[in-house]
Design goal:
The protein is an alpha/beta fold. It has one domain: Beta Polymerase, domain 2 (2-Layer Sandwich). The protein is built from 3 helices and 9 strands; from the N terminus they run H-E-E-H-E-E-E-E-H-E-E-E. The strands form 3 sheets. Strands 1-2-5-4-3 form a 5-stranded mixed sheet, covered by helices on one side. The chain has a two-stranded parallel ribbon with strand order 6-7. Strand 4 and strand 5 form a beta hairpin. The model has no long low-confidence stretch (mean pLDDT 90).
Length: 169
C-alpha cells in the first residue's frame, strides 16, 4: 500500500489529533497531539511499521512549533521499505506522554534517555529513572533553558584525565 494511502487513512481516523502531514525528500512526517500517540503508533505498527528506529525529543523553545517539546518517533516498515516520522507535541507545564514500550521494547531505554535529558515523563513506563545522569542531578541538560557553564565559569568543573597507550592526552 502506498504511503499516501496510509496518511489519508490516518488523517481520517485521527482527524482531531493530526496537526499536519508533510513530505520532504521522500520521507513523510506527521505532527500529532501527544495525548493520542500510543493509538497512532499502534495503528502504524499494525499497518506494517514494525520497527522503532529511534525515539528522541526536540525542545522548541526558540524554534516555535505547536508546543514546547516534541517527542520524535522514527519508524520503519521492513516489508515495504518505507520510513515515517511522527512528532508528538507535549506542553511545557507537565510534559508527559504515554509510554510506547508496550509496542516496542527498544523504546524502554530511549524513553529513559528523553526523560533524563528533557524531563518528559512517559506514563506506564516500567522503570522511568535516569539513565545518563546521576540520580541526584538537578535539571535536564538538553533543555534550551538549562544553564550552560564550562571550565571558565565553574571552578568545580569535572576533569577526566584520559590515557592512551600509557600516555596522558
Amino acid at each position: 500500500m502506498a504511503i499516501s494511502d496510509l496518511t489519508t487513512r490516518l488523517q481520517e481516523k485521527f482527524q482531531e489529533s493530526i496537526l499536519d502531514v508533510s513530505e520532504y525528500n521522500g520521507e513523510v512526517s506527521i505532527n500529532v497531539k501527544g495525548l493520542v500517540i500510543l493509538e497512532i503508533l499502534s495503528f502504524l505498527k499494525s499497518d506494517g511499521f514494525n520497527f522503532l528506529v529511534d525515539l528522541t525529543a526536540v525542545d522548541n523553545l526558540t524554534l516555535g512549533g505547536y508546543d514546547r517539546f516534541a517527542v520524535v518517533y522514527h519508524l520503519l516498515s521492513h516489508e515495504n521499505v518505507e520510513r515515517i516520522v511522527v512528532k508528538a507535541y507535549v506542553p511545557e507545564e507537565k510534559p508527559s506522554l504515554p509510554s510506547v514500550e508496550s509496542l516496542w521494547k527498544s523504546a524502554n531505554w530511549q524513553e529513559r534517555e528523553v526523560y533524563d535529558l528533557y524531563g518528559i515523563e512517559f506514563e506506564g513506563h516500567p522503570n522511568l529513572i535516569r539513565i545518563m545522569n546521576p540520580d541526584e542531578f538537578e535539571g535536564h541538560p538538553l533543555r534550551k533553558d538549562f544553564p550552560r557553564q564550562g571550565r571558565e565559569q565553574r571552578k568545580d568543573f569535572p576533569v577526566v584525565e584520559r590515557m592512551t597507550r600509557g600516555k596522558r592526552l
